[in-house]
Amino acid sequence: MVLDVRETAEYEFSHIPNSISIPLGELEKRLYELDKEKETYVICRTGNRSDLAAQKLTKKGFTKVINVVPGMSQWTGKRIEVSK
User: Fold this and answer.
1) CA-to-CA distance for 19 and 41, rounded, in angstroms?
2) pTM metric for this prediction
3) CA nearest 22: which of 50, 64, 51?
4) Tell me: the pLDDT tens digits for 6-32?
5) Parallel, antiparallel, or unpaired: how do β-strands 80-81 and 14-15 relate?
6) What is the dihedral of CA 59, 1, 27, 30, to 10 degrees?
7) How many whole angstroms from its chain centre is CA 77?
8) Which among 21, 25, 36, 80 has the fewest CB atoms less than 10 Å away?
């Protein structure tokens, strides 16, 4: 599972296909949407917010949490982009 903790506008602009968008500020109240048993890759733009999110998840009992560094700013894999 890929958890994207960037703001909604950032996610809508470009994101990894099938990732879950939960902005960092909403994470605590939306934990019920996540499966503690799944390996969780947490991503943001540079790795700072995802590091904070990974720490929060670990404190809440998630044991398979990986912070994706350096984040979307350097992501070279497949992504969905919205062009205007």
Assistant:
1) 9
2) 0.90
3) 50
4) 999 999 999 999 999 999 999 999 999
5) antiparallel
6) -110
7) 15
8) 25
